[in-house]
Specification:
Layout (H helix, E strand, L loop, with lengths): L3 H24 L3 H22 L2 H23 L14 E2 H8 L3 H13 L3 E3 L4 E4 L1 H5 L5 H27 L12 H5 L7 H5 L3 H10 L16 H7 L8 E4 L5 H9 L8 E5 L1 H10 L8 E4 L13 E5 L7 H14 L5 E6 L8 H11 L8 H10 L2 E8 L5 E7 L5
Parallel strand pairs: 4-5, 4-7, 5-6, 7-8
Antiparallel strand pairs: 1-3, 2-3, 8-10, 9-10
The structure holds S-adenosylmethionine (SAM).
S-adenosylmethionine (SAM) binds next to α12.
InterPro entries: COMT-like, COMT_C, SAM-dependent_MTases_sf, WH-like_DNA-bd_sf, WH_DNA-bd_sf
Organism: Staphylotrichum tortipilum
GO biological process, one term: methylation
Length: about 400
């Protein structure tokens, strides 16, 4: 802990920052502003812990986080959250819950108490528990339910395998091969990409697709980038495909794009992803995607839609190393015409990444991907034969990078 007077100054600055945020909330922000305020408050809270904690306190701060994530994962796996009644004023005892799960009472109580101690479940009298707003989101198949599983199964599993992985593979090269990832090492599935692993069963495919919809708020589909020009240009070119969402997942982004762009005809939009993903999306018959053409493809192979006005790629480049990004971009760049634009949507990191950015980068390392700075994106896109026309950041850390084919490179 710093000297008392330094700590006092720091606490005063936190207090001032908190009152500024409180004033802002009273005045009322737009949705993005509120997300930014929340992020700011979360940063203040975690920085405060860091600032106050002595070295010997650090483990005491980390250990509960690890235990908490593990307890959440176990309760999801056991179907325990959905056995807790959700109606207002209701609760269950650990004994009743254990009986429902055909499990040992002490086991359920010990894991359950981790959830109570961390605020995921609430105590409702001796040995009784009740839902919180958060635990209710873990009781049904929500994007947060899915992300909690992916965070544990892909994230923590890979993190815990890292010491052994690097012992065997050395530390003279950062992981850069999508077939030889830390995740595949942890899963005993070397030779499989992260996507092959995540799509290896219908349940896992469902979970990863749903999880991708959970962090939308942190990376808006367009933010303040206005895609209206596509509708205006498209009027002159009736046959041209207007928007191709490459590596679209369940269509969460394309739906936002359609909503944010009045006049954009879904019949002139395409959702592309691996065939097994597209099959799920087609099966969902989502009313917001009616008319959108669904195309199963592999973005390392030929881009099936040629000369579209916009190719849109969100959160795809950060899944891969530089060389693999170039291989992945090549077919799409080859399909672009002079008036085509590629919109790359990512969360470029600063040279001093935040806690979240640096953690995401380690998650990406587990699948041989990486987070990049804006300069690194520029360089990468340049090597792929593109020029960056503009980069439009939003207030929560995402950026839409608009690129065109660099004719000098053709
Ligand atoms: C991180 S997710 C991003 C999904 C969506 N763009 C978003 O931002 O929510 C990456 C997507 O790329 C897809 N993908 C992975 N490998 C692919 C490949 N070789 N060809 C096409 N799509 C692929 C995955 O199935 C997944 O939907």
């Amino acid at each position: 802990m710093p000297p008392i007077s330094v700590l006092a100054d720091y606490l005063l600055s936190v207090a001032r920052s908190l009152s500024g945020a409180a004033e802002g909330l009273r005045i009322g922000f737009n949705k993005e502003g509120t997300v930014a305020t929340r992020q700011h408050l979360l940063r203040l809270a975690t920085d405060l812990i860091d600032y106050v904690a002595r070295p010997e306190d650090k483990l005491m701060v980390w250990l509960p986080v690890l235990a908490h994530l593990t307890a959440i994962r176990l309760f999801i796996k056991w179907g325990a959250f959905e056995k807790i009644p959700t109606a207002e004023g209701t609760s269950t005892s650990f004994r009743e819950l254990a009986a429902e799960l055909k499990a040992d009472r002490a086991l359920i109580a010990r894991v359950g108490r981790v959830l109570v101690a961390n605020g995921t479940l609430a105590r409702a009298g001796d040995d009784r528990i009740t839902h919180t707003v958060f635990s209710k989101t873990l009781a049904t198949e929500t994007p947060i339910w899915a992300m909690a599983q992916v965070g544990f199964d892909n994230g923590l599993t890979s993190f815990s395998a890292m010491p052994k992985y690097f012992e065997q593979h050395g530390i003279d090269n950062e992981p850069n091969d999508r077939f030889q990832t830390i995740l595949s090492f942890a899963e005993g599935a070397m030779g499989s990409t992260a996507w092959a692993i995540n799509h290896s069963s219908p349940e896992r495919l469902k979970v990863i697709m749903l999880a991708m919809a959970s962090i939308d708020e942190y990376l808006p589909a367009l933010g303040s980038y206005d895609l209206g020009w596509v509708v205006r240009e498209g009027g002159r070119l009736p046959e041209q495909t207007l928007v191709v969402d490459v590596g679209a997942g369940g269509g969460q982004t394309l739906k936002k794009i359609l909503k944010a762009t009045p006049g954009l005809d879904p019949m002139r939009c395409v959702l592309e992803d691996l065939p097994e993903v597209v099959a799920v999306v087609e099966g969902q018959k989502d009313a917001e995607l009616v008319g959108v053409k669904m195309v199963g493809m592999d973005f390392f192979k030929e881009q099936p839609i040629k000369g579209a006005l916009v190719y849109y790629m969100r959160r795809c480049l950060h899944d891969y190393s530089d060389d693999e990004c170039l291989a992945m971009l090549k077919p799409t760049v080859a399909a672009m015409s002079n008036d085509s634009r590629l919109l790359v949507v990512e969360m470029p990191v600063g040279t001093q990444p935040t806690r979240l950015q640096a953690s995401m980068d380690l998650m990406m390392m587990a699948i041989s991907g990486k987070e990049r700075t804006m300069d690194e994106y520029r360089e990468l896109l340049g090597k792929a034969g593109l020029v960056v026309i503009e980069a439009v950041p939003n207030t929560v850390g995402g950026t839409v990078i608009e690129c065109a084919v660099d004719n000098r490179a053709r």
